[in-house]
Write a structure and sequence with these properties.
The complex is a heterodimer of chains A (240) and B (249).
Chain A: E1 2-11, H1 14-25, E2 29-36, H2 44-51, H3 53-57, E3 61-62, E4 65-66, H4 71-77, E5 82-85, H5 93-101, E6 106-110, H6 119-122, E7 127-132, E8 139-141, H7 144-152, E9 154-161, E10 171-178, H8 186-209, E11 223-225, H9 230-238
Parallel strand pairs in A: 1-2, 1-6, 2-5, 6-7, 8-11
Antiparallel strand pairs in A: 3-4, 7-9, 9-10
Chain B: H1 30-56, H2 62-66, H3 68-78, H4 84-98, H5 101-105, E1 119-120, H6 121-133, H7 140-157, E2 163-164, H8 178-195, H9 198-213, H10 221-244
Antiparallel strand pairs in B: 1-2
Helix pairs in contact in B: 1-4, 1-10, 6-7, 6-8, 7-8, 7-9, 8-9, 8-10, 9-10
Classes of the chains: A alpha/beta (240), B mainly alpha (249).
Amino acid sequence: MILQDVGMLAVSSNRTKFYLQQMARFRLLPAYVVLMEVNTLQTPEMVAAQRSRAARKRTQNFHSLNMGISVAQLLVMHGIPHSRIPTVDPNSQAVIDAVKDCSPSIIIYSGPGGAILRPPILETGKRFLHVHPGYLPDYRGSTTLYYSLLKEGNFGATALFLDHQIDTGAIIRRMKYPAPEDREGIDLYFDPYIRSQLLVEVLKEYAEKGTLEVQAQDAGIGDTYFIIHPVLKHIAILGR
Amino acid sequence: MRTVASLYTYTGRNLLQNPEAYMYSEFKGEAFLKDYLQARNQFAEAFENRYLSCLQNRTSDSLFERRPLFFNMVWKQWNLLYSAEIASLHSSFLKGWEKDKKYHSSSPPTLPSDLLGRMNTQEVLESLLLCQVQKKENPMDICDRLLEFFLARFEITKKVYTAYDNGKRALSEQSHVLVNYALLGLNGILQYKREKILTALNASLKINDLLCSAQENVILPGELSLTIASLRMEIQAVKSLCFEKRIGL
């Protein structure tokens, strides 16, 4: 099944690979994908993935999701119409134009880590569906999986529509997950995996009802986190 | 000072000049935490040696001169964090100050009555430190709001500017005053110890990385005194968190 009103704005990353494979598995494919990629420039996720210990000791599969395949291959394999934009900046004019030109009104966002969508692209008339790896509004900001692990021993993820502030948009659905046994692979596997799980739940609802119910957030409630210091990250991974 | 072949590599370049983003930091196993502790202890000892020399030579700086009551309270609170030799010299300094008329005429810094005006960073951070040391219930809410602001500004800009307007913009281009980093780092650790606010400990770890990375520039007694306290308390907080999470070091 093609979700005619759902598109995707993505970079080449494990998150995008997991999203596409889960969507294909549940037959909830996007009608169009704008793929941001630059051959010579790698996203921070890609650099981290290549050098990580988790990547060296793991196979290419995680919960039967294949990380060895490229995003471009997945798009071709599933016959998903797409355009390739030679940038990884989601706020660039080329990306704004490509997003404006595509017909879906809901755009699943799977951009590079740390990038924030700015007003020009947020004002294209599209709604950007993002899965944040933190239980909102409690965990806004960056690397919240690790903070959640330190504070509560579990994880959360929230599907929301992006707005002009960070992680304050209307909530579509949120879930909590137990911590995995292997915490070394959080960035590489577990983060994209739980996001992809929540995404397909949201898309199933959309396919069934033809709409998504949302709940507004109070921006004054909750905490904002900044990139976790390596010492705290190690304690989160090694701790029990 | 650098640790040979240490897995803890976040103090190897001057972070005041070349900030560290900490994005997608690599997991290096338990040995990383051991190397972190070793590196931090070595920096704390190096700062202590420099500080001891300052105190023995009766070197003073404007911060010491201007804030005798402030250091009186800081040292009384945390003298155990310093070596016995330094603690003894602190007492001798305090005795000397107590004989001085200036000491008796000086007053402890206070928090700004409103948060809408220009904020002199050093004055506010000193007041926040005293506020936390004295555990005054009443202004603690203001104290926490101000700390949240300063720590968040540091996380975003990786700098502590010498003045800010009503909580949003830096009013000065100056961000090289190291005592402000030491004051903020110490404040963050205290807030973490008081309220278990992880964002405060997170920012303080980064601030202390910066102070260690710029260790050649940390030379004034006031800076040294506060930096040592901040590092020692950070080590205690990290060890305690590791114990809580059943990580044996």
